[in-house]
Amino acid sequence: MMRTVCSAILFMLVLSATGTAWAEQKAESRDAAEELASVLRSYQTYQANFIQIVVNGNGNQVQETRGVLKAKRPGLFYWETAAPLSQFIVSDGDTVEVYDPDLEQVTIHTLDEQVQSTPALLLSGEVGNLDESYEVSERRIGDDTREYTLVPRGADSLFTSLRLTFYRGELQEMRMEDSLSQLSILSFDQVTLNQDLDSAVFSLDYPEEVDVIRDGA
Fold first, then answer.
1. How far apart (Å, rounded) are the C-alpha atoms in residues 145 and 172?
2. Edge-first strand listing for the sheet containing 76-81
3. Tens-place pLDDT, residues 99-157
4. In this structure, are residues 200 and 78 in contact, taking their beta carbons and an 8 Å threshold?
5. How many Cβ atoms are within 10 Å of 169's Cβ, its own excluded?
């Protein structure tokens, strides 16, 4: 009888400790999410050149592209990659247009919840509910560098983990891993924060003869 009582007490203590640890972890995630959201909200505009490297599950580099990224709150986004993988992506907050010059094709997507979770759109979209969508952790490296890792809470996310690295408040790198263990690394340079950007920057100009494909068409 005594052994049964002791076992029950031990079991309750384990549950209590587990619950406390879970609550602490949840609080830490909420604090990290709020801190990250505060940093991102301070970016009214963000401009940078980038290099994107894609590494497969075996650790082999399979792609490298260079381009320009521009973002403006609320909801405006511009992405351009240079030849030979030329592509333009623009968002007005309601839709996303993807223009592939080589294919002579424009695809227009509604900015639904899944598209909004695209990592780069964190620079122009809503970030107030990060803790609802992601488990967020923070790591500090010295006095100047902060790393935030986001793990999606939902099963239908475009990635399994995302790491954002900031140096003195400027976003310097994004690392995104998908379900196939493919890693995409975006490294930014010539970063410019909060410089005024005309809204005309966030529109696409493409030839009339290109094929236009819309969601559901």
1. 10
2. 134-141, 145-152, 161-167, 170-177, 183-193, 45-55, 61-72, 76-81, 87-91, 95-100, 105-110, 211-214
3. 999 999 999 988 765 555 577 778 988 888 888 889 999 999 999 999 999 999 887 77
4. no
5. 11
Overall number of domains in the chain: 1
Place of tokens 């247009």: 97
Range of the domain at 11: 2-214
Q: Which residues of 37-65 are buried (b: 16+ CB within 10 A; e: fewer)?
A: bebbeebebbbbebebeebeeeeeeeeeb
CATH number of the domain at 191, please.
2.50.20.10
Beta bridge partners of 80: 68, 88
pTM over 0.70: yes
